[in-house]
Structures are given as C-alpha cells and as structure tokens.
Amino acid sequence: MSAMPEDSKHALPPEEQRRLVDDDRRYVWHPFTQHSLWNQVDPLVIVAGDREYVIDSEGNRYIDGHSSLWCNLHGHRRPEIDAAIQAQLGRIAHSTQLGLASPPAIELAKRLVDIAPPGLAKVFYSDDGSTSVEVACKMAFAYWQHRGEPQRDRFIALRNAYHGDTIGSVSVGGIDLFHRVYAPLLFKTEFAPSPYCYRCPLGKKPETCGLACADEVGRLLDQHRGRIAAVIVEPLVQAAAGMITAPPGHLARVRKLCDTYKTLLIADEVATGFGRTGVMFACTREKVSPDLMCLSKGLTGGYLPLAATLATDEIYHAFLGPIDSGRTLYHGHTFTGNPLGCAAALASLDIFEQDRVIERLPAKIEIISSHLARLANHRHVGNVRQCGMMAGIELVKDKATGEPYAYGQQVGAQVCLHARRHGVILRPLADTVVIMPPLCTSDENLNHLMIAVERCIEEVIPRLGASVPDGLE
Ligand SMILES: Cc1ncc(COP(=O)(O)O)c(C=O)c1O
Question: Which residue's CA is the nearest one to ligand 1's atom 10?
C-alpha cells in the first residue's frame, strides 16, 4: 500500500507548494506542536477533502484516520451539509444570540433536546469544546451560589481527564504534561483516579476491582461533603488520555454517587458525542442523564466551530429572577450560535436519520474489533482499547511488563508519520495510536486503515534508534 497519487486537479504547482510550506514555517504557530521538531519535516498541506479522504497539495489522498481531529462524521464535502451552509449563506452568515434569535439556532436547540438524555431541556451555545466545558463549570458554580450554597466552590474531575485548553477547562484537566505549567492559575479541583484498567492507579485487577476507581469519587465527595459544585467526566472514554475506556458501570456508579451526595454531574461528550461510541451519546449506554452535557466537534458533522452546553430545567430555573437579582448568566461569545454552524448541525442530524448512521455502525465497529483482536497479540502492543468507533493501540517497550518507551523517543509519532506512506493520516496520543475515522468510512477503508497501522508498527519499531528518524530522509 502507498499514498494514492490522484486528484491532480487539487495539486498545486511545485513553487506554490514550496511557498506555502515556507510561509507556514515563517508565520504559523501550530497547536500542541513543538516547533523545533515541526521545522525539521515539511508539513503536509491539506487542500481538499472527499468523503473519508483528505487530499494534499501534491494531489495525494489519505484516509482521514482521526476525522480531522475527531470532528468529521459523514465525510468531507458532504453534499447535504454543503448545501445547507450555502442555503444559509444565501440568507445570513452571522447574527448574534445576544438580544436576538435565529431560526437555525432555535431549530437545532429543539432537535438536540429531543435526542439528548432525558432531563436536559435547555441549550446554551458557544464555539468549541473548551468553551462548552467552561460554560458548564460556570453554570454549575453559579447554580449553587443562586441556591444559597456558596461553599460549593470546587469540582471533582478524573486524573488523565482532558476537557479543553481554556483556563476553566484546564482547571478540571488531569494530564500533567499539558496542564502543570498553568497550576497557579487554576481553580480548586479534586482528582479521582483515572479508570485506566491497563495501568490501574490503585493496583487492582479489572476482574476483581469492584469499580474501586469510581468509589474513589465517592470518597472525595464524602471528604468534601457539601463543598463540591459538580463532578465532571468524559463518559466511557478518556479520549485525549489515549482512548482510555472506562470499565462498564463506571459512569452509572459516578451518577449514583452524585445523586447520593446531591451534587451535579457534567458529562463532557465533546469527543464521545454523535455516534462515536456506537450510540448517539455515550451517557445513554449506561442510561445516565447528566445535569449538564457538553457537545462540540461532531455537532456540525465536523464542519464548523460550534458547541452547546445542555442543562436541566432545574439548573436553568436557578438563574431566573428580577434583573437586579444577580442571577443572569453573564457569559456569551461573539459567534455563539452562529447560523452557518447551526445549519450544518441540522443537516448532520438529518443525515443521521436518512442514512440510519447509528444502525450501520455495529458492522464497522466489528471490523475495527477484529483487527484489534489480532493487534492485541502483537509483540510491540501492550494494550488495545475500543469503544465503538474510537480505539487506541498502546505501544510499549516491553510487552511482558508494560514498560513504556521514553517520551523523547516519540514512538507513537513516528508510527503515525509513517502511516502517510500507506495513505493514512493518524495522530497519536503519546505512544497510543488513535483510530477514530469518520463514521461514514467504507468497510474497505477501515480494513486498509487497520492493516496500515500494523504494517507501520512493523516497519518503524525495528528501526528505532536509527540515527535518521522516519520522515526526515
Ligand atoms: C472530551 C473533550 N472535551 C473538550 C475538548 C476541547 O475541545 P476543543 O478543542 O474544541 O476546545 C476536547 C478536545 O479534544 C475533548 O476531547
């Protein structure tokens, strides 16, 4: 297998390709990127997309193995979504939600409430996953202020959690590598263990642990009784931590504990929402209704930046009162509820219905599972994890002991860089290779993707330590 040179109509003249790469180096600061390394390899410049493919400036097409960072659901240049955005452009590109309303935002709010877990009744729009979490945390905090319990001034989150990059969402984040430098800026959060069975932080065996990691949430709720504004979790999968899949029952147990200690549960479904776990929202797998739910990424089918925080009526009502009551939610972004984004989201929800997307997922999930079953035995693979269309393949130095590679070796990054030669775009989380293709990916391409990962592991790992890292030749 190799990258498929085609789509020459998208190929740019060589001098234009060079200019773009040079100007990227000169002017662009990329997210989550160590630029001292970035500058050693020419970046792939993506100029077009087509279904589950992205196409680079040389006209090569690649399977979009991470859905353009966990967003794209129904493919790139999906005619129905393109048409919905164009139709909305024919009316208006943007109007504000501050003091005005707009049809796409109204229709979308109604549709989201219809499909959300029971009890979620109001939709507050923002722009991206981080802001949806920021809003949820502010709502939870202010809710208790308005209810006359101002001492509830802290949150419980899970170690390894990732909820975004704004300071509020970093405050409930548990990935030291990303978050420790901001520690002095953050609000109070208590951390419970990550449900990471492969490296259980409590040293338990999954078969006999009795969900001890979830019970630690209860221990913290007890220790800080009456002080917790909300518990925040990524339901079923701690995605950015390396697709860490929680053991069954973990989410339901946390919900129960929140009920027992009468605190709020925030479900951050930014990564897991919209079919990724095989159902529309991960919470429904464990019949859990959160008090607040955060959505983004797949909300617009992965087309445009839009987010939503869904809240119960009970939370919403706590914010009602006379104008001078101090209960107004003073939060809102310029592009909150942008009509183009809402129009794309409505078209995406239509596709879910028309194409029976959720009904078709089990067969695709099975293809990924069958390859993972083989990869689990691979000598360089310590652990494979899957929840629906989200999967992680954790590469380790020593299969017997689970000893990881040194971070500086960038093994996951090298394997993913090499995947481009097999016509696949991937991005790792440390040494976990992440598989999260668009939900529309054909069976043939799912097989190609999974076989490519295996070949990359075979082709890259034996060469580790060679003086020239892959991609630099
Ligand atoms: C669970 C979760 N929450 C929040 C975010 C942040 O979303 P954004 O990057 O759109 O701000 C992410 C991003 O990966 C995520 O996975």
Answer: 129
Q: Report the C-alpha gap between 388 and 70 in whole angstroms.
A: 13
**pLDDT tens track for 82-101:** 999 999 999 999 999 999 99
| pLDDT tens by residue, 133-169 | 999 999 999 999 999 999 999 999 999 999 999 999 9
Residue 466 is predicted with a pLDDT of 53
Q: Is the pLDDT of residue 299 over 70?
A: yes
How would DSSP label each residue in 278-344? SSSSHHHHTT---SEEEE-GGGGTTSS--EEEEEEHHHHHHT-S-GGGS-S-----TTTT-HHHHHH
Q: Which of 62, 11, 70 is nearest to 420 (CA)?
A: 62
**Rounded mean pLDDT of the chain?**
95
Please give the distance, rounded to the nearest whole angstrom, from the Cα atom of residue 294 to the centre of ligand 1. 10
Tell me which residue of 100, 114, 123 sits closest to 316, measured CA to CA.
Answer: 123
Contacts of 287 (CB under 8 A, 6+ apart): 252
Please report the pLDDT score of residue 6 as a whole number.
58
Q: Which atom of ligand 1 is nearest to the CA of 305?
A: 10
Could you tell me the sign of the dihedral formed by the alpha carbons of 129, 327, 188, 121, in that order?
negative
The Cα–Cα gap between 42 and 94 comes to 36
Nearest CA residue ID for atom 3, ligand 1:
163
User: Which tokens go with 369?
Assistant: 């599972």
Query: Which residue lies with its CA nearest to atom 4 of ligand 1?
Result: 163
Q: Are 149 and 226 in contact (CB under 8 A)?
A: yes
Task: Return the residue whose CA atom lies nearest to atom 7 of ligand 1.
Answer: 129
Query: Is the model's pLDDT at 469 over the cut of 90?
Result: no
Q: How far apart are CA 219 and CA 211, in angstroms?
A: 13
Ligand 1 environment, Cβ below 6 A: 128-130, 133, 162-164, 234, 239-240, 268, 270-271, 296
More confident residue, 274 or 7: 274
Q: Which atom of ligand 1 is nearest to the CA of 166?
A: 11
Which of 297, 300, 333 is the best mutation target for the ligand 1 pocket, counting ligand atoms within 8 Å of the beta carbon and taking the most? 297
Ligand 1 nearest-atom number relative to CA 130: 11
